[in-house]
Amino acid sequence: MTGPNGRALVLAMGNDLLGDDAVGLHAARMLRCVAPGHVDVVETGEAGFALLEFMHGYDHVLILDAIQTLECQPGSILRYSREDFTALLHPSPHYAGLPDLERLARQSGLHFPTHIAILAMEVEEMRHIGEELSPAVASALQHFVRDALQVLISWNGVS
Amino acid sequence: MMQDNTAASPAQKKRRRITVDPITRLEGHGKIDIFLDDKGEVERALFQVPELRGFEVFSVGRPAEDMPQITSRICGVCPTAHHMASTKALDDLYKVTPPPTALLLRELIYNMFMLEDHALHVYILGGPDFIVGPDAPAAKRNVVGVIEKAGLEVGKRVISMRRRLRECIAMLGGKVVHPVFGLPGGVARGLASDDLAHFREVAREGLDFARFTLQILRDIVLANDDYVALITGDTYTHRTYYMGMVDDHNRVNFYDGNIRVVDPSGDVYARFPAQNYLDYVAEHVEPWSYVKFCYLKPVGWNGFTEGAESGIYSVAPLARLNAAQAMATEEAQKACDEYFATLGQPVHHTLANHWARVIEMLQAAERIVELVHDPAITGSEIRTLPTAIPTSGIGAVEAPRGTLFHHYETDEKGVLTKANLIVATQNNSARMAMSVEKAAKDLIHNGEVSDGLLNRIEMAFRAYDPCHACATHALPGQMPLIVRLRGIDGAVLQEYSR
């Protein structure tokens, strides 16, 4: 790893009281047991600019999250990169996204990760308060962890 | 930039529905439906939010002691507010008074949270409106625009200050989002004498930072006559009741005190302990919204109307300053004097929430300094063990976004049989709906909708710093604003996106 602190970050986002929304957190807990030693695994329920505080100092960041595109089956794993979000202008500063974080970091002279990967699982239910994952999401969890591990290994290989 | 993707005939434009819907990939947020009549004038604007279901069912049957952790996990935006309101509800449930050191520590943590949360709003969330300016092009209405206007060092300073405050919160309470700090009758961890120097250093920096923020406000906002005219303009003005927590001297207090309510003239209407909230707060249901609209029970619900005859009230910084007789600290009081001298008292201008927020930052920062220099802050007695048999407990704090009530009922073993939360945004929901409708009516005529107009309408609710999902987090990046114009039959006539 080439980051300033020599470590990679897995940043899992979600609310563990909102059903499938917590799938990234569940994956993080499994990943923590098997991830290489140079990887920090962090779970957060925060969003927007708060995430910059987590990402600052890392060169490689893997984000795990839930997503609802309604365009694929629950349990499907979608991969995005930093470039997928380049052209977007957010309508409200409440919904600051990666491009805003990067601009803020660069403008302020803060280090921003050069490698960002996003793995998001298509989920089914995240409006009811509850701690259970829906069956399709629960059964795809191990694949989510496997894919995350592959991203981390691929980064390790090129660094 | 907005794009008009489809064309509509003049006949189709007769009665239209405009939907302002900031959709995230993960969950819905606030949505505004604007209905136009046949002349293109606004007939009604409805501010809607998605429903979060099942909290009560989830809570019943759990030990009450779990609630400070559970409720703080509901919301990634103000976990400390839920944690503290819940902890205070447990004090009340077990009829136990925490020792003085525990109260000081709770207040310290709480003021640190208020300072960092208000900072986030002033610079990042509301700043693009307030600092950059409402008429700036969309490309500048973001944090980059704020930095360009306020100076290159600002971004770094905001991030650094928030991080240092949050580190202090974490030193005492574990994770910021999932704090393990408040217990019935006290706190879980005291402040070690060895850590005091660090806390004092952060406190000093926090106060410098709050003073710096007030200066930015003076230099950029108050020096601009157009801006002051916008704040005081009729579009964003409502004469309602105001609610906020005050100490024994009727000064603003975020952590504890009585709830004070003033009428639209600024005269005191009520002053009551949080435990009596059900005598004063009632909820009105509208078929078009999941949100229950709070109003003052003794005054009654009189529709979405202003004035002393309408029970609609407001919370959050603007309301807190109106509801109190003074600030609790010296510099904040001076800033407050300037605020009322400029805007009158009480202040009815919604956009003044941003200014009031900066004054509150200053009070929080000054109070932090006082607390870390209180000799009792490092005391070792931090908990009074509860002995009473629980039945019912109510706790309230001033969340950054306004008064927050937690109300639990339990069996004799402390297992929940009922849980009710009134969150800050809910207290504000009726006035917020009025603000959005008024802005829409003032700014949209002849069916003309532009990027700037929609921003002015969004500004109305951004001033309240609303937090609706109580579960907000989002995959970063893709948050398009979609505006749909619909005919009476629901068919999409025009679609804008940006």
Descriptors:
heterodimer, A: Rossmann fold, 4 helices, 5 strands, 33% helix, globular, B: alpha+beta, Cytochrome-c3 Hydrogenase, chain B, 4-stranded mixed β-sheet, 15 helices, 17 strands, disordered N terminus
Describe this protein's structure:
The complex is a heterodimer of chains A (159) and B (498). Chain A has four helices and five strands. Chain A has helices spanning 23-34, 50-55, 98-107, 135-158; strands spanning 8-13, 39-44, 60-67, 77-81, 115-122. In chain A, strands 2-1-3-5-4 form a five-stranded mixed β-sheet, with helices on one face. The longest helix of chain A is centred in the C-terminal third of the chain and has 24 residues, at 135-158. Chain A starts with 7 loop residues before the first strand and ends with a helix. The longest helix of chain B has 30 residues, at 193-222. Chain B has helices spanning 55-59, 67-74, 79-93, 100-125, 127-132, 143-150, 153-173, 193-222, 225-232, 277-280, 317-323, 330-343, 353-372, 424-443, 451-462, and strands at residues 3-4, 16-22, 31-36, 42-48, 182-183, 186-187, 241-246, 258-262, 268-272, 281-284, 293-296, 313-314, 392-399, 402-410, 416-422, 481-486, 492-497. In chain B, strands 1-17-16-2-3-4 form a six-stranded antiparallel β-sheet, covered by helices on one side. Chain B has a four-stranded mixed β-sheet with strand order 9-8-7-12. A three-stranded antiparallel β-sheet of chain B has the order 13-14-15. In chain B, strand 14 (402-410) and strand 15 form a beta hairpin. Chain B starts with a strand and ends with a strand. Among the domains of chain B are: 3-52 and 434-497, no CATH class; 97-237 and 349-385, Orthogonal Bundle (Cytochrome-c3 Hydrogenase, chain B), CATH 1.10.645.10. With 498 residues, chain B is of the alpha+beta class. Chain B contains 15 helices and 17 strands. At the A-B interface, helix 2, strand 3 and helix 3 of A face helix 1, helix 2, helix 4, helix 6 and helix 7 of B.
